[in-house]
């Protein structure tokens, strides 16, 4: 593993179906042990339900309020909360606050960073105006997910 310092706002950033993912520690930097990703999620946004077959995942809420679906449970996670998700669990999250929410995602082993970089659209502009989701964005997510051992499920009804 390399010693490194990434300042606020540093790291490769991509838009993935409306959310901004910034790689803070890549698998290449950690010898494949883990990846850490900061995600900024606009109000009402979040990924569709999905299952990771390769990695365990955890969320630390930096700011905001999120509804987290894990298998048959619905959790509310607020600033300072920590949520762990075992691989093979069906999960999703949604920002239920009125402003942009932010979380740190820890995934072990690494690989989720490569998924986001391939599935996402390079964030040359990190303002919310760039958070629009196109049909091409959705299709790319569906096409690339199996390569990384991720099954995207049909969105839950609100």
From TrEMBL:
Domain Cupin type-2 span(s) in chain numbering: 39-104
Top-rank EC class of the record's enzyme: oxidoreductase
Keyword hit for Cell cycle: no
Documented EC number(s): 1.13.11.24
SUPFAM superfamilies linked: RmlC-like cupins
Keywords: Dioxygenase, Oxidoreductase
Name listed for the protein in its UniProt record: Quercetin 2,3-dioxygenase
Organism, as annotated: Thalassoglobus polymorphus
Lineage start: Bacteria, Pseudomonadati, Planctomycetota, Planctomycetia, Planctomycetales
